[in-house]
Amino acid sequence: xxxxRHGTRRSGGPRKAQEIFDATLDLLAEKGYEGLTIEGVAxxxxxxxxxxxxxxxxxxxxxxxxxxxxxxxxFTPPDTGSLAGDLESLLRTVVTLLTTRPxxxxxxxxxxxxxxxxxxxxxxxxxxxxxxxxxxxxxxxxVARGELASxxxxxxxxxxxxxxxxxxxxxxxxxxxxxxxxxxxxxVLNGALART
Length: 196
Known about the structure:
single chain; mainly alpha; 9 helices; 0% strand; elongated
């Protein structure tokens, strides 16, 4: 993984970027976006706040960098040998994110804050663009195997699956059935209409 992706840039960067990112995510999980401060991150990470401000001029910029660069949020695209298997693996990752603390607290805080902070919303878009880019090999392989049309809106596929998990877990606050992941993937790939 490149240094640039972890927020330390090739031209240099804070030596303790991971400590800064971890402190940022921990404080977000504990206190929400409103309670997240550069001063708090500096204190928890043991890094001078002027160093943090030099690289990230606001808490929105810092959180955006932490979401993309934190090693604990690293993501390796699955390669199960089938589109359905890969999508199930991707969706299980989302489900784990939304149902396991502290990642669930981070995800919910980020979602809520993004609706209130236009600056953070920009960084959240960058985070999702980064994830979509990382997921692209899943779809490239599916096209090469003949499982997926080359003009498929892959972002829509991901949004349909991840959206189902977000609505079920976060908004409806319902437990997920054991077969939720496979049913969601099957419905998205095969539709819900009765077969004749």
